Amino acid sequence: MKKAGEIFLIVTLIALMTACGNGSISDPGKVDNNSGNALPENLVMLDVGEWPQNEYTDNIPQPESGTLLRGWIDPANEFCYLELSDIAQTEAEQYIESLKTAGFSEVEKVSEEVNNNYVSVGTLLTCDDTSVSISYVDDLFCMYIKNGQ
Predict the structure, then answer these.
(1) Angle at 70 between CA 67 and CA 71, to 5 degrees
(2) 73 near 79, Cβ under 8 Å?
(3) Could you tell me which residue, 114 or 65, shows the higher pLDDT?
């Protein structure tokens, strides 16, 4: 349970850092210490616009809607991060239900109002040795996938 809470916290922090960024990443492999959007050089960047097929996404269903804005695999920390746009709150909730239908169990769910305009929702789910942490606000949907807990 403690490890699940740690995973949820990591994904929430990643989502917050992504949401608070003030620009786009022009060269994801380049580290710029002055940029709030700098990413470590060891990340394997995923193709934008298409659902990735890899060891992390093989165990989870593909969302029926949304467009992959950015994503990467961190081989050092063994996780995959996906950020999708164009997913309404009802579609995000339907996707979480599809994960439950696929055998995932909800470990924790939290929601918080952001700036009196949006509600941010975070959900942690597990199935066997796979953990999926999902956060969404407005039409931004983020997933953190970790295998081998």
Answers:
(1) 110
(2) yes
(3) 65
Quote the CA–CA distance of 116 and 133 in Å, as a whole number: 24
Q: What is the pLDDT of residues 102-147, one digit of tens each?
A: 999 999 999 888 777 777 889 999 999 999 999 998 778 999 999 9
Q: Chain centroid to CA 52: how far?
A: 13
Mean pLDDT of the chain: 80
Max distance between CA atoms of the chain, in angstroms, equals 44
The span from the CA of 77 to the CA of 15, in Å, is: 17
- β 67-74/130-137 pair status: unpaired
Find out whether 100 and 118 touch, Cβ atoms under 8 Å: no
Reported pTM: 0.72
Highest-confidence segment of 9-18, 26-35, 138-147? 138-147
Rounded to the nearest angstrom, the gap between the alpha carbon of residue 101 and the centroid of all alpha carbons in its chain is 19
**Do residues 66 and 134 touch, judged by C-beta distance below 8 A?**
no
